[in-house]
Amino acid sequence: MDLTTLLIALALAMDSFSVSIAHGLTTKTFKASNATKIAAFFGFFQAFMPLVGWYAGVYVLDLIAEFDHWVAFFLLTFIGSRMIYESVKDGEDKLASSLSIKILLILSIATSIDALAVGLGLSVANVSITELVIVTGVVTFALSFVGVYIGRRFGCLLKNRVEALGGIILIGIGLKMLLEHLGVI
C-alpha cells in the first residue's frame, strides 16, 4: 500500500469519523454493537462509492483525456474545500444520534458522495481502484468504530477538526496529482 492510497482513505473516512463522533456525543454509554453497526454501514459505502465513481469515469475517460488531470484536481479541491467549509459551519446533525437503518443509509450515502467523486477523479487520472477500495473500507470501518467511542469520551474537544483535516488532505492530493501530470514534481 502506498502513502497516497492511505491518505486518500483517511481523508474519505473523515466525514464518517465525524458523524461517528457526533453519535458518540449523543449516547449515554458506549455499546460495541452500535459502534459496529455504524462502522459497517460507513465502511461499506465508503468502499463502494469510489468503485462506482471509478467505473463511471472509465466510460468518459476518452472524452476528457487531454484535461483529465485538471478534472481530478478540481474534483478533489472542490470536495476538500466543501469538507473544510462543513467543518466550520454552525449547527449539529440531529440525524447522527439515530441508529435506524433508514437514518444509517442516509448518513452512509451522504458521507460517501465525496468518495464517489474521488473514484471518478482517480479513474480519469488512470489510477487503479482495487487497493483504494479495500483500504478505504477498512480504514473507514476502524475510524467509525473508534469515532463512536471517542465521541462518547472526548468529543467536545475534537468537534469538527477531523473533517477539516480530511479536506486539507484531499486538496493536497489533488495538487500533487496535477503537479505530477504537469511535470513540476
Helix-strand blueprint:
Elements: H1 3-26, H2 32-64, H3 68-88, H4 101-124, H5 130-158, H6 161-181
Helix pairs in contact: 1-2, 1-4, 1-5, 1-6, 2-4, 2-5, 3-4, 3-6
Give a quick rundown of the structure.
The protein has helices at residues 3-26, 32-64, 68-88, 101-124, 130-158, 161-181. It is mainly alpha-helical.
Structure notes:
By secondary structure, this protein is an all-alpha fold. The radius of gyration is 16 Å and the shape is elongated. The protein contains 6 helices and no strands. The chain has helices at 3-26, 32-64, 68-88, 101-124, 130-158, 161-181. Helices cover 82% and strands 0% of the residues. The two termini are 21 Å apart. Helix 1 (3-26) packs across helix 5, helix 1 (3-26) runs antiparallel to helix 6 (161-181) and helix 2 (32-64) runs parallel beside helix 4. It has one domain (3-24, 32-181).
